[in-house]
Amino acid sequence: MDTWKHLIKAAMLGLNRVPFSKEGKEPWLEGLGETADTSINLLELTAAYALARRVGWTPETVEGRIPSPAPAETGIYLSTQAANLVHQTMSTNSGRLITEALQLCVENDYLVPPEYLPVLFRQAMQIDIPADVLLKAAGNRGPWLAAQHESWRSLLPLTGEVWETGTVDQRLKWFLHLRKHKLAESRMRFEELKATEASTALVKFLPLMEEGLGPEDEALLAPLLSHRRKEVRLIVSGLLGQIAESEYVARMQTRLEELIQLKGRKLIVELPLMDDGMKQDQVHERSFAASGLGKKAGYLCAMLSSLPSTFWCQKWDKTPKQLLALAGQSEWKDALILGWTLSAITYRDEDWILAILQQILDTPPLLDVIKDKELGQMIDLLPIERRSIFFLKKIKEVYKSNQHLSLFKMMLLSEFMLTEQLAVSFIQLLAHTLQQRAKSTNYHFRSLLYADLPMLALRVPVESYGAIAKLLNADVLGERWYQAPIDELLEILSLRYQLRIIN
Q: Which DSSP helix (H) or strand (E) runs through 151?
């Protein structure tokens, strides 16, 4: 019989007929009803239990460590209006927008209300929110709260102890910290990994070697080209292909010099035949089928991607633009251009990147070969000044051409922050294009705007909000198919603008 029914029955029929004992009942009842009169004892127990039932829960004992109270907060919390705006950014689930709001709090010495912290911490586990910014905006309560939840503890600053005792995620985080700040120690730790960890762990740690990668890492990585696990070999070949001074890259250069020759004004290209050396270097494991390349063309592309593109400029005394023009006349132009594109990204070659971007604008079908990821990477690697000059010039030129889609893809698929001048110029072009194509049924154009235009609001200066809102006003453009992504862009930009009240 449950406790409540037992108490009611005892009260109705009397303790002589229905004896009641606390033994085996809820522990919290032990301290109640300690009187000499058993009838009063019963009434106190019944009253206490009735109250527990009415409030909807039964007190229970606590097992384990009871957390210490949160430390006193000395900072100033956001105003209700500002806090509501931060809450709106949280509802977008955009790491970039949430980080901007938190950064404003930190810069102006305000704290996020404590009731928002659990949600923010959960979001930080799923999206990119810098832990240091989050903890500063949380105040004294932040580290305390993070320590109460096992997964949230990853937000706390790590120490070297986690290398021996931490979880895999904590060790990965610490190893990345070493790659950024203590390269010599990171190489020592990697030697330990090679000797003690299973291949599954190597697959997780190896990509972090890209941070601070240099000639000193070649000796660590080269032996792993013979590793039994395919994923390890493939990652290692990609890393060695980013070290220009490595023997791996030298081997690629030797092979390519035999395959690509300049005779007069024509590139003579011979596709490679797979041999044991190429297999050892994992050339055969990389596929470029998504870019329309066959196996042998893919081998050529893979080798080109590992060799600095400047090698060809120096070898033949040609500019990137001249070499791309020569490649455009070759039967294997796609493999050549994609290989040089990947090389330009790997070695951050600004001149090659600008030449390739121009080639894409001049030859839009190249977008079927150079995918969105590579396109965005190239643009993001350019310095602000060179990038702005390039795009401002192209925006002026595109008014006279019909190649809007290529330029829109370049602007919308990258991550870089626009200058105010570039932002307004691009929105002017967008408004002009929408007015000219109000009834456009171009699937690629429509899908690009719906998928990527709203997020442009996170990359333009807040100061340009007024000019952009005016250019995209529905009274100017008219209510048409593109209104939804425009409304979303303006809504996000408006929220960013309002966040400035935190100042």
A: none
